[in-house]
Design brief:
The chain is mainly α. It contains 20 helices and no strands.
């Protein structure tokens, strides 16, 4: 076992420098106003598709997917099939609305639909709080893995990651972020495929041994894994598919970092291509990660002398550092690090966009393009520094409880937000009173379930929040002043 060599370190540093220059190269043209927030209209659909893929595939996923199948079964692989629910729903009902109204942000839709600035600001603030916490943890986790493998101080790794992401997010706006996402997503995809083939070549029996482990070794589904449970509050394959599908759907329709990609064009053909492209990429890479995890299980069973003491979620990174050829290890570990950097840069840009267009516009009146862009840059810089600071605090504290608490609470946010989006699109008589009532009721209910009812599966949360928002929203809307015709024709317009 070779470990992380000097050559690997040089490649890691070289890759990070290259990423910085790619980001700066696409920021040579000064972007102002909507160009800074939505691109210049010349970004190909396939670049945006890979960017969505890179945004959704955080380093948490990168590390945990292989770890799941290494130590357990493919049960959570079925969560990826939820995209078969999320993508058609998004394309059929939401992309036409976003395209027609040429929205600036996800929460701009709420103001258009409900004629209420408060809902727009509320949605934006919830997203911003969620995203700052997410960015902090996403910086911490891969830096921890890389620090353990390389011996580099974790604080240094966090600062370097944050500074590079801040630089090209600050200078080039969305276009710079999209192109750097594309480069990093491509490197990640190619590197992981290489790792799979190298692993297969290292196993006695090759790919057939992996398939044998899946078909006869109980690695695909265990004896305790239930396909369908009549109690939908309990975990099952069916619930995982539906729950994960609605989680992804919630991201597609209400999370600014994803919706911002949809605002780069109003061409429905391009929007469909980028969304289906993301579906194919995500299903493919998830399957590859699960094959790698099962392959690692077979490999270490055949070669117990190489078995590492690494934790479950670090087993793939440990294999990369200790068994892949010199140079390839550095590149792939850089890809893990880059996955975090990609998510971070996306988060910075989306937070800056949402604050400037959804909140600041109501604080500072008559902002021109230059002022909007400058405010967004300052927000990007400030939020980046805050996220770096929080990440360093987490790195030097008790991350386990903080991480569990954050995901336990923040995982509920997008489902609650998505509920009022769904209400607005599917019920043409929905009012702002109904939206507020649905939002508050679903938020309270899901927090009670999360912290007061321990045996409810987390996969239920998005189902509960969306359903509650819609049901309560319909009831309250019918009890309040109905929206006038101009406010409530979105469904008929989508159907046309």
């Amino acid at each position: 076992m070779k470990g992380f060599t000097t050559i690997d370190f040089i490649i890691l540093v070289g890759y990070l420098i290259a990423v910085l220059f790619v980001g700066l190269a696409f920021s040579k043209k000064e972007m102002k106003g909507k160009e800074f927030f939505k691109g210049d209209g010349k970004i190909p659909w396939w670049v945006t598709s890979v960017s969505i893929f890179a945004t959704l595939l955080s380093p948490i996923s990168f590390l945990s997917l292989a770890g799941n199948s290494y130590s357990g079964t493919w049960l959570l692989w079925f969560a990826q099939l939820g995209m078969l629910i999320a993508v058609p729903l998004t394309i059929r009902f939401f992309l036409p609305v976003y395209s027609k109204y040429d929205i600036d942000t996800a929460y701009h839709y709420l103001e258009i639909r409900y004629k209420d600035k408060g809902l727009r600001i509320l949605g934006a603030l919830m997203f911003i709080i969620y995203q700052i916490g997410r960015m902090s943890i996403i910086m911490y986790l891969p830096s921890m893995v890389l620090a353990n493998l390389t011996g580099i101080n974790i604080n240094v790794l966090i600062i370097v990651m944050g500074v590079i992401a801040i630089i090209y997010s600050y200078t080039g706006g969305l276009k710079s972020v999209l192109w750097t996402d594309f480069v990093q997503g491509a490197v990640l995809f190619i590197g992981v495929i290489f790792a799979l083939f190298f692993l297969i070549g290292s196993i006695d029996g090759g790919f057939s041994s992996i398939m044998s482990s899946l078909t006869t070794g109980g690695k695909f589904l265990g004896s305790e894994d239930i396909l369908f449970n009549p109690n939908i509050l309990k975990s099952s394959v069916f619930l995982i598919i539906v729950g994960a599908g609605l989680n992804t759907f919630s991201s597609y329709v209400s999370s600014q970092d994803i919706v911002q990609r949809f605002t780069t064009t109003t061409d429905m053909k391009q929007l469909k291509k980028m969304t289906y492209g993301n579906l194919v990429l995500s299903l493919t890479i998830a399957t590859i990660f699960y094959l790698i995890g099962t392959g690692l299980s077979v490999y270490y069973n055949q070669n117990p002398q190489f078995l590492q003491t690494a934790q479950q979620d670090q087993i793939f990174a440990s294999f990369i550092a200790n068994h892949l050829p010199v140079g390839i290890s550095g590149l792939l570990l850089a890809a893990i690090y880059a996955a975090a950097q990609s998510t971070l840069s996306t988060g910075l840009n989306s937070v800056a966009t949402s604050w400037t267009l959804d909140v600041q516009k109501y604080i500072s009146k008559d902002m021109d393009d230059k002022k909007c862009t400058k405010i967004a840059q300052y927000i990007s810089l400030g939020v980046g520094i805050v996220a770096i600071g929080v990440s360093i605090v987490l790195a030097n504290g008790n991350i386990k409880s903080a991480y569990e608490w954050f995901n336990g609470f923040m995982g509920l946010v997008l489902g609650v937000l998505a509920g009022i989006f769904v209400l607005g699109v599917f019920y043409k008589k929905a009012t702002k009173q109904g939206a507020y009532a649905g939002f508050i009721t679903s938020a309270v209910l899901v927090v009670i379930l999360k912290y007061g009812v321990s045996d409810v599966s987390a996969w239920c949360y998005s189902i509960i929040t969306i359903a509650t928002s819609v049901i309560v929203g319909i009831i309250v809307s019918n009890l309040t002043q109905p929206a006038n015709d101009s406010e409530s024709e979105l469904i008929s317009e989508v159907e046309e």
